[in-house]
């Protein structure tokens, strides 16, 4: 999603109760039993800042957001104030002095910046008026204070914790324009780098750094009584996270475990009434020290720091689509200990879909290895209907349908998940061809937003757009039977065509090991050779400028590389641990990689930081059909909201 699309998403900012209030409308929505309202958030790439920044302050001004100060990639504090509005990020002012680790809030039409600093903390309160003009110092805090959090309840800003430069603070200050800041509450212990937001008329404080360690506590401060109490606990100690409120929940976003610590991509939802903390999604990559703010029907996340440096990412988090309750699970699919010993279910953000090729079935497996959906079951296929050798399968964005390519059976099938029925087919099962309703080894069929199917037709050397219920392509890229690298006129046996964040498509050509980027009009943007691979398969985008592919051979490998074809990371173990014809790898929100290791009869998750398998379903080189076993799995996808269809939007043909 481009910044322009984000602008459209946040242009619907409500004039009713804000994120710090509890509105009757929200309560009414929560009381409705159908459909089930998800607390999970879906991450959309939403553009970039003018430069990488961490520890930047953020506040709303009208329908735009102001980004104030921050720390750049050279560890220098910045004085710029930028505005995100109208599809762009532009500088609009400068602070009286550079600052990072400050807090910002909107009050009475102005935006105020509290504390922060450069080499030393400051006590200044800086105002940026609604009419423009220079930023000016309008007050002072009782002491210098950086690393603090802020939340607005009513027309009062509450400043939580912080650091003077020599000691952490346990005080909570209240401040209104034209008044002096005063102590109105206390934390159980001094705290800095806590995640702070307002919700339900109270101030919620999650995690942060104490004098000795990161905290797990979730605190609630009540401005009407001045009392602070513990209401919950995070799953793990977290500091340097951000918080924002949306739809009746407070969300704790990113952060790290301890200084210096390792960033996390986790998003946690906190129920302010019960204190219950639940997983609620993932950022596109692990980050700490981010800026976050509720905006319209979502949360904007800007900047931050990955494991090594500040980033320029802008991400929009929106609620996952509402879902109907899942039907009761058949007795035959009861949970069981089906994962390899030592597997960590927490590395997966949700269920995964597996195309279990030589078992002629699709499986949806949860992170603990339990099968929650299977196709076909006994009775799912109509008389005379077959479902043979599915090699890839993907959810649509709603999760209501699965599209499966049966490459060696020359057909594409669309399956209704709830009804367990094939509702559309393109191709003649068992009969290869190139005419209407004919395919020759179709691969990686995906849905476009307009309901079309986009697929790589390998042996016909073409890319096709098909619009159900018709059985004739609406558009073709490449020339049937011309199997040489000359896009867009011809493609050398394309075995994958995957969407990119900017609307382009990355195409893998077997002949010549080419990785092509084409735009929505079908024109070639760039082409590079897959680095060091004899048979690249199903290349897709990790993030702008970084691609992920696999080597379909024995021993095989998984590798990331840039747009020039230069390798960045690889996983290619030798000996007993070697991969055997892996055909697809997908990036996970936490930075890990999900892959099917076809001839080894398993699906794995690899942690690129340690190059270790951290999750495995299936038994290494032991085919089978019982629970916990696979037979040449040839495709994987994540269930919505993390499905490929949710992460990127494949642009319909023009």
Chain-wise SSE layout:
Layout: H1 3-10, H2 24-31, E1 41-53, E2 57-61, E3 64-68, E4 80-85, E5 88-94, E6 103-107, E7 110-114, E8 124-128, E9 136-140, E10 149-153, E11 156-160, E12 171-175, E13 182-186, E14 195-199, E15 202-206, E16 215-222, E17 227-238, E18 242-246, E19 249-253, E20 264-270, E21 277-287, E22 291-295, E23 298-302, E24 311-319, E25 352-356, E26 361-365, E27 371-375, E28 392-395, E29 401-406, E30 411-416, E31 421-426, E32 442-447, E33 453-457, E34 462-466, E35 473-477, E36 494-499, E37 505-509, E38 514-518, E39 524-529, E40 536-543, E41 546-551, E42 557-562, E43 567-571, E44 582-587, E45 593-597, E46 602-607, E47 612-617, E48 633-638, H3 644-647
Parts with pLDDT < 50 across at least 5 consecutive residues: 1-36, 326-336
Strand content: 35-45%
Q: How much helix, percentage-wise, in residues?
A: under 10%
Structural class: mainly beta
Q: Please outline the major beta sheet.
A: 4 strands, antiparallel
Spatially, the strands of the biggest sheet line up as: 1-24-23-22
| Average of pLDDT | 87
Coarse shape: elongated
Radius of gyration: 26 Å
Number of helices: 3
How far from one another are the termini? Answer: 18 Å
Number of strands: 48
